[in-house]
Amino acid sequence: MIAESAWRIIEAKGIEHASIRAIAAEAKLSPGALRHYFSTQDELLLFIVDYFLTRRAHKAEGLEISRIPIIAAKEVLLELLPTNSEKRTPTGVWWVFAIRSLTSSTLRVKRNELTDGLHYLTKTVLEILAGAELLLPSIDLELETLRLAAVVEGLSILAMLRPEQYTAETIERIVVLHLRGLCLRTTDE
């Protein structure tokens, strides 16, 4: 109930309006009752991020990924990017969370966990391509994992800042171009 109330506020008004008082009102609770669970704004933000992760995990369970390695790589990377309105809200929450984690020890551990998760996913994408013998032999897997994560994060923030320029189609073209640059061949075989 609290998480859903917070999410409704974030989707309607933005994360800056997701205060303890606003969420309590939306959930039909007193601010004191909500403060019983969250003594700080950071604890509330951590709760919201965990809720987002649970929602994403449930949606990912039904996700069908292509058996064609290059297409699967593209699909996984596009899932991480704000290519539609449904993915913009969680991306906005992530960036607020990431910025606040720079000065909050409460949020730092979760930020590191999430960043490690992104690196795991980008490395997995590269391993899929390597397993299909598509990666260029000169690719340094560890360095390319970091570079691919940087591409994803860079596209993520630019898509939030300049959605008219970084449309879903443009983001997909950039991802495909980047993947092609890593591969010996990119046929759909």
Give an overview of the whole structure.
By secondary structure, this protein is mostly helical. The protein contains 9 helices and no strands. The chain is 73% helix and 0% strand. Helix 1 (2-13) packs across helix 2 (20-26), helix 5 crosses helix 9 and helix 6 crosses helix 7. The radius of gyration is 19 Å and the shape is elongated. The N and C termini lie far apart (47 Å).
Write down the Rg: 19 Å
Average pLDDT, all residues? 89
Taking the alpha carbons of the first and last residues, their distance comes to: 47 Å
Please identify the structural class as seen in this structure.
mainly alpha
Number of strands: 0
Shape: elongated
Question: What does this entry show, briefly?
Answer:
The chain is an all-alpha fold and 189 residues long. It is 73% helix and 0% strand.
List the helices and strands and how they pair.
Elements: H1 2-13, H2 20-26, H3 31-37, H4 41-61, H5 69-79, H6 85-101, H7 105-131, H8 141-161, H9 168-182
Helix pairs in contact: 1-2, 2-3, 4-6, 5-7, 5-9, 6-7, 7-8
